[in-house]
Amino acid sequence: MTDQHSGETTHQYATFSVDRLFFGIDVRTVQEVLRTQEMTRVPLAPAVVDGLINLRGQIVVAIDMRRRLGLPPRQGGEPMNMVVRGDDGAVSLLVDEIGDVLELGGENWEPPPENLDVGRRGLLDGVHKLDKGLLLILNIARVLDVSGCEAA
Amino acid sequence: MDDLEAIKDFLIESAENLARLDQEMVELEQRPRDPALLASVFRTIHTIKGTSGFFGFDTLGEITHLAENLLSEVRDGRRELTTGLVSLILRSVDAVKELLGAIEETGKESGRQYRELRAALEEAWQSPGEAPAETAMPEAEGERAAKAGVSDTTIRVDVGLLDKLMNLVGELVLARNQILQFNAGQDNGAFNATSQRLNLITTELQENVMKTRMQPIGMVWNKLPRVVRDLAQSCGKQVQLDMEGAETELDKTLIEAIKDPLTHLVRNACDHGIERPEQRAARGKASTGRLSMRAYHEGGQVNIEVSDDGAGIDPAKIAAKAVERGLIRADQASRMSEREALNLVFLPGFSTAAQVTSISGRGVGMDVVKTNIEKIGGTVDLSSRLGEGTTVKIKIPLTLAIIPGLVVYTAGERFVIPQVSLLELIRLEGEGGGGQVERVQGAPVYRRRGQLLPLADLNQLLGLQSARERNPQSDVMNIVVLQAEDRQFGLLVDGISDTQEIVVKPLGKHLKGLSVYAGATIMGDGRVALILDVPGVAERSGVLGGRANASSARAQAQTEAVENERRRLLLFRAGKSERLAVPLETVARLEEIHWDRIEKAGSRQVVQYRGEILPLVDLVCLLDRGAPERKASREPVHVVVISDGARRAGLMVDQIVDIVDERIEMRQASRMRGLLGSVVVGGRVTDLLDLHMAGQEAWGAEFAETRFARKGLRVLIADASAFGRGLVRERLEMEGMRVLEAASSREAAELLDKDACEVLLLAQTLAGGDAVSAQASRKGIPAIRLAGSEAEAEELRRERLEARFQFDAEGLLAAVQRSVPRGGAAAIGRLAEAVSAEDDASRPVVMEEK
Fold it and tell me: What's the DSSP call for residue A46?
């Protein structure tokens, strides 16, 4: 996993922000980006599942990234949907804002710092040092695996 | 590349031929000289032989070649088709299937040589066959010939393509629904007409696309004659299989889903149902048993019946077995109707087979049949007449993709209820609308035509807040009466909308664990709505009670038993403590002993008692270190003889107060030496004696390792396997522990939630086990993992988890004992609740004058 991000070759990351943290995921896993969608709540579902959205006839689970990352709840403002392709079909990640696609080489890559809560839970693959801050690279497979999360 | 394509074609074609071959061989056994049948069998084998030669599949070629040789002799009338020969050829067919399977997976033969089979074929070929005696040509020749020719009008289509078509039609249906909804608000003649037309065409398209996925049930059935034949042979029975309605069509995915359940039912019927010929003769039945399968359409559903004229099932035996297995309580069993009792066979972990055979009776089976059928929205019902036979009736929907559903509203959310489960709608309004709902022990019920209908509140069930709760005096009540399994219940909702054709979409893996939903759909307004799973809703709400949701009922019964347990305590006085108590089960006898019998052994006081030396502990000194030693007097001293099952000790007390048998209301931990804590008994605060401390005083420190520690300890075993639970349970109960069982993580969570146990034994195999263990650790309940092997246990222990191999009973006991903290609230509960689970409890306690 680590080799993928370091080394000579460059990688493209789709970026977004959640609670002023700057995240990136492999652009190839991203299907599309949507504005706020009408959400159907799912009672009794794990808390990280915000609900279901209709993506052109396809029913897609929306995961609240703030909850998933253990960050404080959103104060106002509508979340954006970053739809990614998981093993089990499309899943929408609810994020605060969508950023640009960045093409980054391995020279500024580092493994996740030990003291980062998100990293401790195995959700991070690594960190890219950018001029303006850090880009946290998420392991999308782990983010989508919510089996350990508790019911609402 | 062309080669690969050709091999694929060969595989597809062979698979079809082989399925037919099984059936034809069995038919052939009955009509050995039907030339059309023989020719067909011969042709199939020949084709496979030819093609395998072409691709260079040598083993395949050789086996088919040998089989073909034999068959050609049979065809030419030079060899009799014996049962042995049929079996041999069937074995060859099996080998061919295996080889083809390997080719499909890897592109080449498996490398298995089938030497034995080949030798058997050779031998049969070498031994001269007996020419059959000439007989008249059998009939039934004409119809076979007439069947040829259908293939000219059919083409092969990939199922994936059909699935895609079906999905697209689903989308179209949704779009149509949206247009119709929009149209309702329009006043445009042309648009109205067009949308009407769209509506009709869509419906017709939907029906026809659905038809493309339909397959005759015969596709599954044609494997059964072979199964029945082999089974009957191996059990020494004679079974005739009749099939009716093989042309009945249903959706391909459903065909796949019923394959295993049907096979299982047929196996069951042959193995347990139909008796041996001599038994049948003794009962005045024909020596050949009849097994019949029937399929037909009825009311948008497919009915499949599997019936035999065998021994039938005795409901009383079933009920007794279920009680024995702890699946239901005896009082439940006595209230059951025959039908209900019969349906107990569907409970998980149930098996009536007195003898476990290789075929069935392993205790898995009927429950799996039921689960599989219910998974596809079907129902299973069993009826039986003792001595006359058994019938299993399966009802399944024609298709799963599009179903009619009732749209309801509750707490501002919208849900769809599949119409199959819907019985009626009740709207209560006017004066005291809500008042017509009564409560029986807190459970809401409604009197419907004189019958009590259990109610479940959807809002409460889903943890939603509704108008009804905000305003309980509300005048309007909506009850949706539903059928789950064979019971009825009412679901309270805020509002009822209308019925719609909905396209069922599965919920992704993120929501898979939620049994209350069957899926989701997209409504006319483009929003997603959840589809309720009626059996799941019923189970979650517990409205069905009894057997219909045995697992939940079991959990409930267990907690009830724990909660309502009356604790029997011996009360006495010693020194400053006015009211001390020990659980009565630990008390062997009460004695009055004269001082002149008390002797000194080392620093301890002992008394010769019933042929042993009984160490004595003066509780006054134990509880109050500063208290002066008891002085010898003329009055006899009261001694409570306690026993841990192996050893005994005497506690010297001042006075025996009482024996009480009642619920303990309040508990509080104690920090005082020698006491576990306080409870309220008979309205007065009473201190519970720490028997460990007393025991250590009497016997030394090793007392901590005695059975006292285990007595009355409540241990929860969470394991999906009834066998696994039973195994551990027995050993623990022998030690006087109380064992609670949970067959799922949900049950376990429920019991943990109610503080029903002090130790958790958690099977590694239990789904959702991590959540259970997390919950236990939050509650401070120690968890011990039950591993499937010593190696696995080892590995878990390396991860610093307490773990034991599940068959290592002694290690497990030791682990259980070690895991329990002494003192503290748990221990008080434990001691207080050391109850009459075992014989000691009923041992009479008598005052004895010496």
Answer: B
pLDDT at B466 (0 to 100) = 59
The CB density around residue A88, as the number of other CB atoms within 10 Å, is: 13
Mutation target vs A (from B173, B416, B510; most A CBs, 10 A cutoff): B510
Closest CA to B316 of B304, B330, B302, B305: B330
Among A33-42, A48-57, B251-260, B821-830, which stretch is predicted with the lowest mean pLDDT?
Answer: B821-830
pTM of the model: 0.45
Is A148's CB within 8 Å of B770's CB? yes
Q: How far is the C-alpha of B676 from the C-alpha of B688, rounded, in Å?
A: 5
A111-115, B125-129, B194-198, B554-558: least confidently modelled range: B554-558
* φ and ψ of B841, to 5 deg: -60, -35
Please, which pLDDT band fits residue B481 given cuts at 50, 70 and 90?
very high
Residue B592 has pLDDT above 60, yes or no: yes
d(CA B159, CA B252): 9
Give the C-alpha distances (Å, rounded to integers) separating B739 from B716, B759, B776.
6, 10, 16
- Minimum Cα–Cα distance from A87: chain B residue: B509
**Above 50 in pLDDT, residue B100?**
yes
Would the pLDDT of B19 be above 60?
yes
Chain A hits for B507, Cβ within 8 Å: 52, 59, 61
B463 touches chain A (CB under 8 A): yes
List of chain B residues whose C-beta atoms are within 8 Å of the C-beta of residue A68: none
Which among B608, B586, B625, B601 has a CA at the least distance from the CA of B703? B586
Specify which of A38-42, B159-163, B359-363, B678-682 reaches the highest per-range mean pLDDT: A38-42
Name beta bridge partners: B75.
none
Q: Please give the mean pLDDT across all residues of chain B.
A: 76
Q: CA-to-CA distance for A97 and A105, rounded, in angstroms?
A: 24
A61/B529 Cβ within 8 A: no
CB–CB contact A61 B510 (8 Å): yes
Does residue B563 surpass a pLDDT of 80?
no
Strand partners of residue B517: B532
Query: Nearest chain B Cα to A152, which residue?
Result: B463
Instruction: Kindly report the number of other CB atoms within 10 A of residue B839's CB atom.
Output: 9
Residues comprising chain B, all counted: 850
In B169-272, where do the E strands start and end? Answer: 214-216, 239-244, 249-251
- The phi-psi region of residue A92 (left if phi > 0; otherwise alpha if psi is between -120 and 50; otherwise beta) is beta
User: How is chain B split among helix, strand and coil, in percent rounded to 5?
Assistant: 45, 25, 30
pLDDT of B268 reads 83
Among candidates A46, A51, A59 on the partner chain, residue whose Cβ is nearest the Cβ of B505: A59
B522/A contact by beta carbon, under 8 A: yes
Q: What are the residue ranges spanned by the domains of chain A?
A: 10-144
**Confidence at B667, pLDDT banded by 50, 70, 90:** low
Separation CA A105–CA B53 (nearest Å): 56
Beta carbons of A45 and B464 less than 8 Å apart: no
Q: Do B520 and A44 touch (CB under 8 A)?
A: no
| Set of chain B residues whose Cβ sits within 8 Å of the Cβ of A46 | 510
Is the distance from CB of B784 to CB of B802 less than 8 angstroms?
Answer: yes
In angstroms, the separation between the Cα of residue A146 and the nearest Cα of chain B is 7
Spatial contact of B661 and B606, defined as CB atoms under 8 Å apart: no
Assign a CATH topology to domain A10-144.
OB fold (Dihydrolipoamide Acetyltransferase, E2P) (2.40.50)
Spatial separation of the C-alpha atoms in residues B655 and B641, rounded to whole Å:
14
The number of residues making up chain A comes to: 152
- At B132, list the tokens: 């059959």
Which band of pLDDT confidence, cut at 50, 70 and 90, is reported for residue A63? very high
B522, A44: Cβ pair inside 8 Å?
no
Contact between A59 and B511 using a beta-carbon 8 Å cutoff: no
